[in-house]
Specification:
Blueprint: H1 9-19, E1 28-30, H2 32-38, E2 41-46, H3 57-64, E3 71-75, H4 79-91, E4 94-99, H5 105-113, E5 117-120, H6 125-139, E6 142-144, H7 150-166, E7 172-176, H8 181-193, E8 198-204, H9 209-216, H10 239-248, E9 251-255, H11 257-271, H12 277-288, E10 298-303, H13 310-318
Parallel strand pairs: 2-10, 3-4, 3-6, 4-5, 7-8, 7-10, 8-9
Antiparallel strand pairs: 1-2
């Protein structure tokens, strides 16, 4: 039977060994311009510098490295699909990625460039999961879930291990939240290595599924999640990611699309980094300035990816 237990530090350390030489140890840099603007010590963990420009390579490669099946199916808004396609090619596996009906074209193009087949289906992640399970049943392929999987969570947690190694002390860490795989893995690692540091999530106010789950004390489904941050709009977190967040996450901020775009603009112009909207959500929490005193003075922001559409980037640069 498949392991459904939440990973611990040992599993995250094992994942770090598996992905070594494939996923890179991304820079953790201070930003003097952002620090001056906000009156805090601002550090950026640049997952946009991964080979596929997004943190998702950590979890997908860790997962596929342990799979015996020769054919896999991934459900994704884009980035997890890129990571799974990249990893499948590395291990010689056939890969199908189920995307929403209107994906970011640059992400879809990257998936096909790595040799995967694309199927566009549905609007929401849970609809695509149903379709994926149908394909699994019909073909014998294995599902690579985007977040609610112990190996995926452990792989994403390697980002937290790196932060703990790269920065001696910090007050808090701010993580964008989609299905909560990244914040789950990071929070497990950080609470083991830096127990006094706080971990906060950020999600669109129009897709606040983690906040709703923590308030309700159970996984809660958002009826119509939507945002410019396409990677942050599953209708719910998973049972495993909810378990991790309920144990280890100290709070969740919500931000509007306007605040996400403003944060993108700020990061591009002040830090010279080009984040996609989902990645800019972390800094948007500080920019919005609601209840941010609890972040403390020394803060790490996860810049989770840089697969931004050319059209949106042009708008940001011209504004």
């Amino acid at each position: 039977m498949e392991n459904r237990r939440l990973p611990g530090l040992a599993e995250i350390e094992a994942a770090q060994d598996r992905i070594s030489g494939v996923a890179v140890r991304t820079p953790l840099v201070d930003s003097p311009a952002l620090s001056k603007r906000f009156g805090r010590e601002v550090y950026l963990k640049l997952e946009c510098f991964q080979p596929i420009r997004v943190f998702k390579i950590r979890g997908a490669y860790n997962k596929l490295s342990q799979m015996k099946e020769r054919s896999v199916v991934a459900v994704s808004s884009g980035n997890h699909g890129i990571a799974t396609a990249f990893s499948a090619r590395a291990f010689g596996k056939k890969c199908t990625v189920i995307l929403p009906e209107n994906p970011v074209q640059e992400k879809a193009d990257a998936i096909t460039e790595y040799g995967a087949q694309i199927l566009k289906f549905g609007k929401y992640e849970d609809e695509r999961i149903v379709k994926a399970n149908q394909i699994v049943k019909e073909t014998g392929a294995a599902l690579v879930h985007p977040f609610n999987d112990p190996a995926i969570i452990a792989g994403q947690g390697t980002c937290g291990l790196e932060i703990a190694e790269q920065l001696g002390d910090f007050d808090s860490l701010v993580v964008p939240v989609g299905g909560a795989g990244l914040i789950s893995g990071i929070s497990i690692a950080i609470k083991a290595k830096k127990p006094r540091a706080k971990v906060f999530g950020v999600e669109p106010v129009t897709a606040a599924k983690l906040q709703a789950a923590l308030l309700a004390g159970k996984v809660t489904r958002v009826q119509d999640p939507h945002s410019i941050a396409d990677g942050l709009i599953p209708r719910s977190v998973g049972d495993l990611t909810y378990e991790a967040c309920s144990k280890y996450v100290d709070g969740v901020f919500t931000v509007s699309d306007e605040e996400i775009l403003a944060a993108m603009r700020l990061i591009v112009k002040e830090a010279r980094i080009f984040p996609e909207p989902s990645a800019a959500a972390s800094v948007a929490a500080l920019l919005a300035g609601r209840d941010t005193d609890r972040l403390g003075k020394r803060i790490v922001f996860i810049i989770s990816g840089g697969n931004v559409s050319q059209k949106l980037l042009a708008q940001i640069l011209s504004s």
